Amino acid sequence: MKILVTGSTGHLGEALIRALRALDHEVVGLDLAPSAFTTEIGSIADRACVSRCMRGVEAVLHAATLHKPHVATHSRQDFVDTNISGTLNLLEEAVAQHVRCFVFTSTTSVFGDALVPPQGAPAAWVTEEVTPIPKNIYGATKAAAEDLCQLFHRNHGLAVIVLRTSRFFPEDDDNEAVRSAYPGDNAKLNEYLHRRVDIEDVVGAHRLALERARTIGFRKYIVSATTPFEKEDLAELRLDAPSVLKRRVPDYEGVYARRQWRMFPSIDRVYVNARARDELGWRPKHDFAAIVARLKAGGEVTSELATIIGRKGYHARSFADGPYPVE
Q1: HEC string of 245-256?
Q2: Phi and psi dihedrals of 109, rounded to 5?
Q3: At a CB cut-off of 8 Å and minimum separation 6, what does 152 contact?
Q4: How many degrees, rounded to 5, is the angle at CA 79 between CA 76 and CA 80?
Q5: pLDDT tens digits, residue range 140-180?
Q6: How many CB atoms lie within 10 A of CB 135?
Q7: How far apart are CA 82 and CA 91, in angstroms?
Q8: What is the Cα 248 distance to its own chain's centre?
């Protein structure tokens, strides 16, 4: 199959192309920046470029985007041009050139303010039924792009799957308080309980979406590591997350003690991947309990694929106050 992957130089783009090439697919990699995984240099905001790259393509994996780390360094118009107009160009060309299916990489950031319950309320149980309330231009433009995907399925019959991925970047946390209080791997492993996913599992979700898009038609899925928590834990998670975790994954205490790591005292939201597991047949391998077991056996927090790809950064320069500026 000939597949167009946008954002081919980025974390996810590279991961997708590595997997597709291993399966002997013909891949067109489109990105603004050159790399070993990019075959076409250009912008998704350039309709002529998109048209050229779409020739003969049977499926699209649309991972190109301006991310949350760009909010403080790029204009709102830049976000509109890339995340909305770029997605529109891809959708229109996909229809014009009779592409069979389209997979859009979205983000759990579309939920925005819906993720933070009021003070004293239980943690949020976040499923696809939660209504997004974007809180910045990143979330707003990704939500708008999701709506465009639904429109093109409705009006043109294009099979589209939207994958709302949680965190998978290897860079340090943008929150200075988290960076100062927790070693990087400690913070990331904590997040596998409720808001993080390994890039290997993200690739698996995209592959399944490609396979099943035409049968499903249109659907949105949360792509995050499987949580050990249940809805009955939500009130206590907000007050005393370590106590809940002792019941759900008791083995974690010894692993954390040997590394002098700590669990977050409170968790305010839990991403739920049940729909993706039930409908796509997605089986993420890298959940909290699995990673704890891997650490006990002498392994690492990250998967082999995540380690190979490494850190790419989001900007051409560094910043004194963190991995990227925060608006």
Answers
A1: HHHHCCCHHHHH
A2: -65, -15
A3: 91, 92, 94, 95, 102, 158, 160
A4: 90
A5: 999 999 999 999 999 999 999 999 999 998 888 878 889 88
A6: 16
A7: 13
A8: 25
DSSP string, 74-109: S-HHHHIIIIIIHHHHHHHHHHHTT-SEEEEEEEGG
Task: Give the rounded distance of the alpha carbon of 283 from its chain centre.
Answer: 16
In sequence order, the 6+-apart residues with CB closer than 8 A to the CB of 17 are 5, 8, 27, 29, 37
The residue with tokens 């979205």 is 106
Measured CA to CA in angstroms, residue 203 lies from 12, 115, 148, 257 at distances of 8, 25, 23, 32
Alpha carbons within 13 angstroms on the beta-carbon side of residue 232 total 2
What was the pLDDT predicted at 274?
A: 98
CATH architecture of 2-309: 3-Layer(aba) Sandwich (3.40)
Q: How far apart are alpha carbons 63 and 86 in whole angstroms?
A: 11
**Is pLDDT of 87 > 80?**
yes
Best CA proximity match to 99, nearest among 205, 201, 232, 6: 6
> If you average pLDDT over every residue of the chain, what do you get?
94
Cα–Cα distance between 94 and 195 in angstroms, integer? 32
C-alpha span between 136 and 133 (Å, rounded): 9
Extents of the domains making up the chain? 2-309
CB atoms within 10 A of CB 153: 21
